[in-house]
Design brief:
Blueprint: E1 8-10, H1 13-30, H2 36-47, H3 51-56, E2 66-70, H4 76-79, H5 94-107, E3 109-113, E4 123-125, E5 144-147, E6 159-166, E7 173-177, H6 185-191, H7 205-208, E8 220-223, E9 226-229, H8 243-259, E10 261-263, E11 270-274, E12 278-282, E13 295-302, E14 323-325
Parallel strand pairs: 1-2
Antiparallel strand pairs: 2-11, 3-13, 3-14, 4-13, 5-12, 6-11, 6-13, 7-10, 7-12, 8-9
Length: 329
Amino acid sequence: MPACPAPVRPLDATAAAELTTAAAELLAGHGSSTSPGLLAALPAAGARLPDTVRHALRPVDTADGLFVLRGLRPDDTALGATPGHWSTVGDAGALWDVVLLLVSTLMGTPIAWDGQQDGRFVHNIVPSPGHESEQTGASSDVLLTPHTEDAFHPGRAHLLLLCCMRNHDNIATTAASIRRTALSDADVARLKRPLVPILPDDAYEEAQRFPGRPAPVPTLFDTGEGLTLRFDPAYTPFDEADEAWRDAYRRLEDELARVSVAVGMEPGDVLVVDNDIVVHGRVPFTARYDGTDRWLKRASVRVEGRPTRPSAEADEHGYGQAALTAWAA
């Protein structure tokens, strides 16, 4: 798998300091990164940030469908030990929660889920004992299969942001853009047909118990700017599709594997992924659970009015999961 050719957008020391200072002031003023008052204050605080920060966070603008914002510098010692589970993080790295929320605000509207990580707008992604072989961010021993974030839901993020807190072992995030693939017209036509659903993943236990009938969804969708996709093979019931469709899907998997790149994230890097264009995953690794394991923070962003989703998605039930928006929190 080749090294990532994605653009790196650097923040100079002055811009990085202004972003972290704004985050520190918000945190000091509201006492917690989860405070409703802090969330409500994000748009005004974001508007005061300099043009250098705003320019670095302009929309994704290449067929790679992603970029790395680089220049932030977390203090590894001040962070403390990598938590063993998201629920035990507490206030660890709270400043970087707010930094990530400010970055998210400059790109759209931060969203959260009532059924995941207690409705927090910033998730902590750490390896957790007992979850090593799951297809969730808490896994480690297995390849995290490339997927669209929250593919089961019509209100899924347009942008996925991953901020690296710690990565001593240089564990790569994988990424593959549908705009880099070479699919036949016949396969594209087949995969535009809504034949099978995408089911909720294991991070959404309540959604997995939802009694409504799963709605079939298209895997590919064409826009004026090119193809977009909705893809999560680990949670797709292939036995509901015909053989020709399954063959086309396998060829799509092969193409995504062919164009996949490995993104090596340094502490402070923010990887911005267009969730309509790029599927992401993670290579396997062996967790030590000694406080030094890989630690990412994750935020989801909605870009209002973006025409990258089929209109039929508006009729989906979303397995009973409600997307929360920061301004209404």
